[in-house]
Amino acid sequence: MSQPNVPNITPQISINRDDAINLLLASIAMEEIGLAHIINAEGEKIQYAIGTIPGLSPEATLDQILDVNDSVQDMLAMVIKKELLLDNKLKQVIDLITGS
Questions:
Q1: What pLDDT digit, counting tens, does each position of 36-55 carry?
Q2: Which among 9, 15, 33, 58 would be 20 to 30 A from 40, CA to CA?
Q3: 55 Rama class: left (phi>0) / alpha (psi -120 to 50) / beta
């Protein structure tokens, strides 16, 4: 069996301090948008289960609604943990900007 032939790639990428800070802030913003979409989806999941969004036939049982509630609680717990990490990341970027 032969070894794969990997070409010698040396891209020239130059990022200055301001570019790096902007990329960090953009990454935080994009993650926040992703979390907002997750929260919205969880809300729609609840609405669907309790019947305010049409389409569920027959209606959900109490056990099914409680299962949805548990699922949403678990997801929101993960979202909160991610928010705490993003808050810490943002504080570090702000410290980097202000030089603290």
A1: 999 999 999 999 988 888 77
A2: 58
A3: left
